[in-house]
Write a structure and sequence with these properties.
- InterPro entries: Exonuc_VII_S, Exonuc_VII_ssu_sf.
- The chain is mainly alpha-helical and 94 residues long.
- It has a domain of 54 residues: Helix Hairpins, CATH 1.10.287.
- It has two helices and no strands.
- Helix 1 runs antiparallel to helix 2.
- The longest helix is centred in the middle third of the chain and has 33 residues.
- The two termini are 35 Å apart.
Length: 94
């Protein structure tokens, strides 16, 4: 069985997983197709969890000081263009 391509972002991974669940719940696939969809769904769920874990670690790194002490940091949600409000439009490496 060929390995399916993993979506590049969390939203696409989640959408693909939801599509598989819908197809499985419909119950109109063969046993083999159902098993393949289930295996792909497990893989996608693991990928989504890894992305969430990675995001959590990145956030922790942003609020922990160099010696591990937590420092209060205000969270600013990104605007529609994806940049943080009040920041200059410069390329981020995160």
């Amino acid at each position: 069985m060929a390995e399916k391509e993993v979506p590049q972002d969390f939203a696409a991974t989640l959408a693909r997983l939801e599509g598989l669940v819908t197809r499985l719940e419909a119950g109109d696939m063969s046993l083999e197709a159902s098993l393949g969809a289930f295996e792909e769904g497990v893989s996608l769920a693991r990928e989504a969890q890894q992305r969430l874990d990675s995001a959590e670690l990145r956030l922790q790194a942003l609020v922990e000081g160099p010696e591990g002490a937590l420092t209060p940091t205000a969270f600013t949600a990104p605007d529609a263009a994806g940049s943080m409000a009040g920041e200059a439009d410069e390329e981020k490496d995160w």
